[in-house]
Amino acid sequence: MAKTIITCAITGAIHTPTMSDALPINSEMIAEQAIDAAKAGAAILHLHARNPANGAPSIDPAHFMEFLPRIKAETDAIVNISTGGSLSTGIVERMAPAVAASPEMCSLNMGSLNFAMHPLADRYKEWKYDWEEAYVRGSVGNIFRNTFDDIGKVAQTLGGDHQVKFEHECYDVGHIYNLKFCVDQGMFKAPIFLQFVMGILGGITANIDNLVFMKQTADRLFGTDYQWSVIGAGAQQMKLGAVSAQMGGHVRVGLEDSLFIKRGVLASSNAQQVEKMRGILETQGNEVATPAEAREMLGLKGADEVAF
Q1: Could you report the per-residue pLDDT of 108-142, keeping only the tens digit for each?
Q2: For this UniProt entry, which residues form the secretion signal (predicted)?
Q3: Residue 134 covered by a domain
Q4: What is the pLDDT of residues 266-290, one digit of tens each?
Q5: Which of 203, 152, 201, 161 is nearest to 179 (CA)?
Q6: CA 176 from centroid of its chain's CA atoms
Q7: Distance (Å, rounded) from C-alpha 39 to C-alpha 158?
Q8: 287: domain range?
């Protein structure tokens, strides 16, 4: 069995500072937690930025550049920059951090969907920052736009001269078919890397039956010429990660996807989640991939080719 890649998604754009004191909300916290997650066994670091003034999600390239050089200097981990860090801006603005940094990898969402987290707002009576409650409650009206035109712009801009490889995020079965269409159109070349995103309100539910169905669909469309991973958002994070590895896939953890280390207990850091996932994998007989091994599996350009 091939080794298992652990990705750690450090902060994301869903959770807000009120929800957990461990959530990284400035460049120093993001860098420190990313470095610790890499030391714990994460071969890939999936990165968003935050506005250091108030912890709000940011797609300002300058905010990314506050932590990217330090992460590169102190780890060998693969940097994966989000192109989906805002639900209210267009794709050109969303991919600006990746254009500036030219990383080895970027996430690329493979279809539009209702992307909502508004039920979380009812759990909190007081908020640390004024922007948080409206941001969370306002997601009831969100449409996360990822049209074929948007996907094509990212493929041409980042997959061309920048030679970025993509983590193709599939929030539902139809997104896998979207990816197949794009591959057939020549937008992307093997090895492709699918990320099954499960448990987001508006996408497919996080359970084992749906994971098996997503995998069967990908097998039918791509044969064996792809790599894949799973995000089990919320309470299913560790369970689906364990099952994914048993099925030959890779795993993603991190405070972007779940703030908890077990039911009812907030995680103290991203590294704590990586350590727990690594322990599960090694207990069930999976070997964890190093960054060098992950680069080879995914056909990446190498850390010496980035712009930070």
Answers
A1: 999 999 999 999 999 999 999 999 999 999 999 99
A2: none
A3: no
A4: 999 999 999 999 999 999 999 999 9
A5: 152
A6: 17
A7: 28
A8: 6-112+143-305
